[in-house]
Design a protein that fits this description.
mainly alpha, membrane, transmembrane helix
């Protein structure tokens, strides 16, 4: 297991991360109830809207899917042939190649801006203005080393373990791709599974007895950049970064191509969330950026759970930084 360089300065522990006095009153659970209510409302509203609009939406999407379906199928056939249809190679080698490539290609786009300050027009969308300008190269290299360890050692070992699990769950490795409707349904399930699992694992690592030993590493970056999306203690990377994303495809027994698409989407989402830039037409990373700055609030991925009302009270303060 990789250890954090003891010579590298880390952020002091916030007051809330210290063990709570046993005589102190129990924490208020109202925010948890509010989060559950918000989640139920969001999911319920989304289902109603989807049910109302699905005929129109699916008609347009099916036209696109039908026009490009042969293209996707052709590409997949080439990939499938490249691996000789070998299920182990597709599960282990293919999954690692896809996730490694997507992570570094997408994060490199943000890293280029952080290192060069160009193109300059992007800098106006910096959330914490002036942060990481210039970027601390020693701090960056420290992060890169742990990220590579997590990808190669932790990720490699875990995907090796996953191959027999894929077989047990009946995951498909066939040359034929699943239908558009089924992929769309699975992505919705994956999103819900990730939101719930990440939220509770994230809250667990914020527990005072665990934070100082595990999650504190990730919070060294109070103004995050793209690659620190998986800059974390190896145990946290396994349980909080990988498991919530991988669990959905395992539960659904998904086709490996669907799993690859989901892994890529999840990686690009978390890189954007940690990028420190709120670019036009991209999902806002402000909530998670605030979490890194204050070490509290916004524990979820989408904000359905873990975004307590207290966060709204700090929005103006955050934007004024």
């Amino acid at each position: 297991m990789a250890e954090v360089d003891s010579t590298y300065p880390v952020m002091p522990e916030p007051e809330w991360a210290k063990p709570r006095d046993k005589k102190a009153p129990p924490p208020d659970n109202k925010s948890v109830i509010d989060s559950l209510k918000k989640t139920a409302f969001v999911i319920g509203t989304a289902l109603i809207c989807f049910a109302a609009a699905r005929n129109t939406i699916t008609w347009h999407v099916e036209r696109f899917w039908g026009a490009s379906g042969d293209l996707w199928q052709g590409w997949w056939m080439k990939i499938h042939s490249l691996f000789g249809g070998d299920e182990f190679l597709l599960s282990f080698v293919g999954s690692n190649v896809v996730t490694f490539s997507v992570f570094w290609v997408f994060s490199a786009l943000y890293l280029l801006v952080d290192l060069t300050g160009r193109p300059k027009w992007v800098l106006q969308y910096k959330i914490q203005d002036g942060s990481n300008q210039p970027l601390d190269l020693k701090k960056l290299m420290h992060a890169v080393k742990l990220v590579l360890f997590n990808q190669i050692v932790v990720g490699g070992a875990f995907t090796l373990f996953l191959y027999p699990v894929h077989s047990w769950r009946g995951c498909s490795f066939t040359p034929e791709l699943p239908s558009f409707h089924w992929v769309l349904f699975e992505i919705a399930i994956f999103t819900l599974v990730e939101e719930v699992c990440f939220y509770y694992s994230h809250r667990l690592f914020h527990h005072p007895r665990l934070y100082r030993y595990i999650h504190k590493i990730h919070h060294e970056w109070t103004a995050p950049i793209g690659i620190v999306a998986i800059y974390a203690h190896p145990l946290e990377h396994l349980l909080s970064n990988m498991w919530p994303v991988i669990l959905g495809p395992l539960v659904m027994g998904s086709h490996i191509a669907t799993a690859w698409m989901w892994y890529s989407l999840a990686l690009m989402t978390t890189i954007n969330t940690h990028s420190g830039y709120h670019l036009p037409f991209m999902p806002s990373p402000e909530a998670h950026d605030f979490h890194h700055l204050k070490f509290t609030q916004n524990f979820g991925v989408l904000g359905c759970v873990g975004s307590a009302p207290r966060h709204r009270c700090h929005v103006q303060e955050f934007k004024s930084l």
